[in-house]
């Protein structure tokens, strides 16, 4: 069946669920380290506490890709059942994670949250390739990125907004402030509603040959399909994997370390260590509360600044949406420019000391984020078998989660020392990694992949 070109609102509707997915990712990325620190984690412990996130992606995404490739229901479709399951689980985890009373509970909720987000997210990538002809793939992934940018910006500023509405920003030692809990609750609701919107407004194409699909489904097994897909992985996918490795190492470093790095380096307000205070001595509780308030306020400012990378990725995606609607996009050079710009944003953090310049840094980083969420997937979708799109998108996720696992298992802590022992060193590592990702685009040479 020949795929027809879709209009703006049709693509918008099928991508709208990403608003909720990004609410989950932005709240997780912007505030989990803060929750860990509030519960007593030291800065050097944080990357290890984050390891649950990439590990779940490594396991979950290929499985969900395989299952959605081999699912078809005239009532529920192919990808939509997985959207809904992931949304329900993610909303549950988002609501409860800020109520964690200990580090191990918070780490456990992070595990559940990331696994659930991955259940929803992987089929969304495959849905674009399912529904759109090759000539609209760049347009479709860029429009997804526009919605992701909107979600990132709003969600990153939610705790600040709720705080401004009058909710308490102070709490007892080891307790998450009330306004953070409310922000996560709002995020849970938005996640579920936005996924339901896509499910109710989007129809999926049936397999081209339903009988052949049913026959193939009987013959397929997960491991057979997995090993066949690994063996037949196109060279373009491997080259994109190099770019993805450096890109996602950089962003994992940012998500896990931006709060401890920037609260100390820019705002001189590191998280207070409870062990350094003797609460039996008069004045020590007040001193802790004052230091904690400074840290929470600085964390809000870092979260708001991080929200700007969602805003600039949204503006970048909006520009590309208008451009890609009428013309082909040189995916290779757009991606190269964007990654290098983001790398410079991270590197500038080493020489700045004020909020306004921090905002500029995150605006540059947003160009990278906007491109990372669209260009690699557009290039990949032009180089793989459409019947295996879910599995291949799931396997492509290996190049996202493996660098994050390496980062969590000591990569961030050990490599950051190359840039000194200061709090800002991890951000300099992230910048260098993004620049390497940009240069790696020279590996991509296939014309069809570059132009779309």
Give descriptors for this structure.
452 residues, Growth Hormone, Chain: A, transmembrane, mainly alpha, single chain
Describe the structure in your own words.
It is a single chain. The protein has 19 helices and no strands. The mean pLDDT is 83. The longest helix is centred in the C-terminal third of the chain and has 43 residues, at 284-326. 74% of the residues lie in helices and 0% in strands. α4 (52-69) packs parallel to α6 (103-131), α7 packs antiparallel against α8 (178-201) and α11 runs antiparallel to α12. By secondary structure, the chain is mostly helical. The protein has one domain: MFS general substrate transporter like domains (Growth Hormone, Chain: A), CATH 1.20.1250. The protein has helices at 8-15, 17-38, 46-49, 52-69, 80-96, 103-131, 137-164, 178-201, 210-219, 222-231, 235-265, 284-326, 331-348, 355-372, 375-381, 389-396, 398-416, 425-439, 447-451.
The CATH class label is Mainly Alpha
Number of strands: 0
Task: Give the averaged pLDDT, no decimals.
Answer: 83
Under CATH, the homologous superfamily reads MFS general substrate transporter like domains
Measured as a percent range, the helix fraction is over 70%
pLDDT under 50 segments (min length 5)?
none
Q: How are helices and strands ordered from N to C?
A: HHHHHHHHHHHHHHHHHHH
Largest sheet properties: none
Q: What distance separates the N and C termini?
A: 20 Å
Radius of gyration: 22 Å
What fold name goes in the CATH topology slot?
Answer: Growth Hormone, Chain: A
Secondary structure class reads mainly alpha
So what's the overall shape? globular
Number of helices: 19
Name given to the CATH architecture: Up-down Bundle
Estimated share of beta-strand residues: under 5%
- Tally of discrete structural domains: 1
């Amino acid at each position: 069946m020949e795929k027809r070109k879709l209009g703006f609102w049709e693509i918008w509707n099928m991508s709208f669920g990403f608003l909720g997915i990004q609410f989950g990712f932005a709240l997780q990325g912007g505030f989990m380290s803060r929750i860990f620190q509030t519960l007593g984690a030291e800065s050097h412990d944080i990357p290890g506490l984050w390891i649950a996130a990439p590990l779940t992606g490594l396991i979950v995404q290929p499985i969900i890709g395989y299952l959605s490739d081999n699912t078809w229901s005239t009532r529920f479709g192919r990808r939509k059942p997985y959207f809904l399951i992931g949304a329900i689980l993610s909303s549950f985890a988002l609501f409860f994670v800020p109520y964690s009373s200990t580090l191990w509970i918070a780490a456990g909720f992070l595990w559940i949250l990331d696994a659930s987000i991955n259940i929803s997210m992987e089929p969304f990538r495959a849905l674009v390739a399912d529904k759109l002809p090759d000539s609209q793939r760049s347009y479709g992934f860029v429009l997804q990125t526009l919605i992701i940018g909107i979600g990132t910006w709003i969600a990153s500023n939610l705790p600040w907004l709720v705080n401004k509405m009058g909710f308490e920003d102070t709490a007892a030692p080891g307790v998450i402030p009330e306004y953070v809990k409310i922000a996560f609750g709002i995020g849970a609701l938005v996640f579920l509603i936005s996924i339901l919107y896509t499910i109710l407004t989007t129809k999926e194409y049936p397999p081209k040959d339903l009988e052949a699909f049913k026959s193939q489904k009987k013959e397929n097994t997960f491991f057979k399909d997995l090993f066949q897909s690994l063996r037949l992985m196109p060279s373009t996918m491997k080259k994109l994997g190099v770019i993805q490795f450096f890109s996602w190492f950089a962003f994992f470093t940012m998500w896990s370390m931006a709060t401890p790095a920037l609260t100390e380096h820019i705002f001189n307000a590191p998280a207070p260590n409870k062990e350094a205070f003797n609460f039996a001595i008069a004045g020590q509780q007040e001193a802790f509360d004052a230091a904690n308030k400074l840290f929470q306020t600085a964390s809000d400012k870092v979260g708001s600044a991080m929200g700007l990378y969602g805003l600039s990725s949204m503006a970048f995606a909006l520009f590309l949406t208008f451009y890609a609607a009428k013309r082909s996009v040189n995916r290779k050079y757009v991606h190269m420019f964007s990654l290098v710009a983001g790398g410079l944003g991270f590197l500038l953090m080493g020489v700045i000391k004020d909020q306004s310049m921090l905002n500029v840094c995150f605006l540059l980083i947003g160009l990278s984020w906007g491109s990372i969420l669209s260009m690699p997937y557009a290039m990949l979708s032009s180089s793989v078998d459409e019947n295996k799109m879910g599995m291949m998108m799931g396997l492509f996720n290996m190049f996202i989660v493996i660098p994050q696992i390496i980062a969590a298992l000591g990569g961030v802590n050990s490599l950051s020392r190359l840039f000194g022992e200061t709090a800002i060193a991890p951000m300099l590592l992230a910048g260098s990694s993004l620049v390497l990702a940009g240069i790696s685009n020279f590996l991509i040479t296939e014309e069809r992949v570059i132009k779309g």
